[in-house]
């Protein structure tokens, strides 16, 4: 494949599909540059005094890691001045972040989980950044949280970076999914996979099995069948993976198929599951669907859900279409 840069890809995509206006192209390039900076900070590890906790709790009630805060600041500072955003929202911030008055406001709204998989930071396991882009409502004045509460189907772009053995950026603007690898020597993102497609069938599943005693019956039935393999009603045996970094599990599924599950369970019926709709489930659902997969909350398509709160959680079943359809069907029985 001809190696082209992210910039060239975006320019050629705009020329051929006219779906990436200049401000959206600027937004994507600014976020990609911020991910480069985060990758550099993450890569320092103990040498950079960036490990460990900051002894502060975020809105999720989770103790923030130093790198959570550093990554959040990097994304805020990178995006404030460009004139492409009306406001931002982050897993690490209780309320939305307005553009300072000294800068012009733009027509897009950026949501992100600045560093997903934080429990893996201090043990050198892959982590990442997830982002979602919405358009500001027509005629919007001062942005409010309500302006962000749009279903995932309204996203105009979504992506994630994985800070792993390679640093990769996976992106969709609604015309398929492409992967860029960071060339550290040149400091540029290089197109390395075009039009990624998730295999419809799979033999691999991802779930935190330590929660099994809390699962609702449809999930228990589905996972038991996977574990039974050919000895049960399935035609094949299955393998399991759980990295505890959604970005890493989803990237594996994009490349070789699989189903990722974070179900709701009996412990907190009013907080279904652990993953957040606006800046984890929605962007990943957009990417997965653009790659030929499926993403539901066990009943509904993730991207059809009308958000009620900025940090609301949602059960997540996403990946190879045949498996997501099967486990979703079990929820209907
Ligand atoms: P558990 C990371 O904290 C995260 O939000 C996702 O990236 C990941 O899939 C999940 O939580 C891991 O949750 O309960 O296995 O630690």
Automatic annotation (TrEMBL):
NCBIfam families: PRK09293.1-1, PRK09293.1-3, PRK09293.1-4. Homotetramer. The keyword Nucleotidyltransferase does not apply. It comes from the Bacteria. Mg(2+) 1 binds at residues 91, 113, 115. It catalyses: beta-D-fructose 1,6-bisphosphate + H2O = beta-D-fructose 6-phosphate + phosphate. The gene is fbp. Substrate binds at residues 116-119, 208, 274. This is Fructose-1,6-bisphosphatase class 1. It is found in: Cytoplasm. Its main location: cytoplasm. HAMAP family: FBPase_class1. Pathway: Carbohydrate biosynthesis. Belongs to the FBPase class 1 family. It comes from Actimicrobium antarcticum. Residues 198-332 form the Fructose-1-6-bisphosphatase class 1 C-terminal domain. Mg(2+) 2 binds at residues 113, 116, 280. It is an enzyme of class 3 (hydrolase). Its EC number is 3.1.3.11. Residues 5-193 form the Fructose-1-6-bisphosphatase class I N-terminal domain. Binds 2 magnesium ions per subunit. Keywords: Carbohydrate metabolism, Cytoplasm, Hydrolase, Magnesium, Metal-binding. Its cofactor is Mg(2+).
């Amino acid at each position: 494949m001809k190696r082209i840069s992210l910039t060239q890809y975006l320019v050629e995509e705009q020329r051929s599909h006219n779906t990436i206006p200049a401000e959206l192209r600027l937004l994507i390039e600014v976020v990609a540059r911020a991910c480069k900076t985060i990758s550099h900070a993450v890569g320092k590890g103990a040498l950079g005094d960036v490990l460990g906790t900051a002894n502060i709790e975020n809105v999720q009630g989770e103790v923030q890691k130093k790198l959570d805060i550093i990554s959040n600041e990097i994304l805020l500072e990178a995006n404030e001045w460009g004139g492409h955003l009306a406001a931002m929202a982050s897993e690490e911030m209780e309320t939305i972040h307005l553009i300072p008055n000294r800068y012009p406001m733009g027509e897009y709204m950026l949501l992100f989980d600045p560093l997903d998989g934080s429990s893996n930071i201090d043990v050198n396991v892959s982590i990442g950044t997830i982002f979602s882009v919405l358009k500001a409502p027509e005629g919007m004045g001062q942005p409010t949280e309500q302006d962000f509460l749009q279903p995932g189907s309204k996203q105009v772009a979504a992506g994630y970076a994985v800070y792993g053995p390679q640093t990769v950026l996976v992106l969709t603007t609604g015309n398929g999914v492409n992967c860029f690898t960071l060339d550290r020597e040149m400091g540029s993102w290089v197109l390395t996979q075009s039009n990624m497609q998730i295999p419809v069938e799979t033999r691999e599943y991802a779930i935190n099995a330590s929660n099994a005693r809390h699962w609702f019956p449809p999930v228990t039935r589905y996972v038991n069948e996977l574990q039974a393999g050919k000895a049960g009603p399935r035609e094949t045996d299955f393998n399991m993976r759980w990295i505890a970094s959604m970005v890493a599990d989803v990237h594996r599924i994009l490349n070789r198929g699989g189903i990722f599950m974070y179900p709701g369970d009996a412990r907190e019926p009013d907080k279904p599951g652990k993953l957040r709709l606006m800046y984890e489930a929605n962007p990943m659902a957009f990417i997965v669907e653009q790659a030929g997969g499926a993403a539901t909350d066990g009943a509904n398509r993730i991207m059809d859900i009308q958000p009620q709160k900025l940090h609301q959680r949602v059960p997540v079943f996403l990946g190879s279409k045949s498996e997501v359809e099967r486990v979703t069907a079990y929820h209907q029985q």
